[in-house]
Amino acid sequence: MKLKTVMLAIMLSLSAVPAHAQDGAKGPNGGKMATDKGHKLEFVPSATDVKIYTSDPATGAKGRIIIQSGGKTTQITLAPDGSDKLAAPLAAPLEKGAVVAVSVTSADGHITQARFTVD
After folding, report:
1. Sites in the chain below the pLDDT cut of 50
2. What gap in Å lies between CA 24 and CA 8, rounded to an integer?
3. CB neighbours of 84 closer than 8 A, spacing ≥ 6?
4. I need a labelling partner for 114 at 20 to 30 A (CA). Which of 5, 21, 44, 65 fits?
């Protein structure tokens, strides 16, 4: 029960995230773009993983995604994957309409957050 309370608190805190995917804006990697305080994130899901491209260097960064879909909430840790992105494997493809909250902390401590809806 305590885990559900913690996850709900995280989702509520991220629901106030100011950055949302920009309608129709596609990034250079084909994903949805969002900007938070001048820092850009690009959300690129596939059937097997999620990639988050960032305008900040990914080296030394850490992050997480929280997926809300079908009444379930799942948290996944992102890890650097090259110099410009973070990635995480998925247990199953994301469902259409799933809400994905992203939080990336760069090596210098700047936190960039965004929320995306899966098409």
Report:
1. 8, 12, 15-18
2. 29
3. 53, 54, 57, 58
4. 5
- Residue 31 sits at φ, ψ, to 5 deg, of -100, 175
Three-state secondary structure along 15-71?
Answer: HCCCCECCCCCECCCCCEEEEECCEEEEEEECCCEEEEEECCCCCCCEEEEEEEECC
Phi, psi of 5 (to 5 degrees): -65, -45
Q: Residues 42-73: pLDDT tens digits?
A: 999 999 999 999 999 999 999 999 999 999 99
* 43-64 core/surface letters (b: 16 or more CB in 10 A; e: else): bbbeeeebbbbbebebeebebb
Tell me, what DSSP letter sits at residue 81? -
First to last CA, the chain: 31
* 83 and 57 Cβ atoms separated by less than 8 Å: yes
Structure tokens at 48: 């097997």
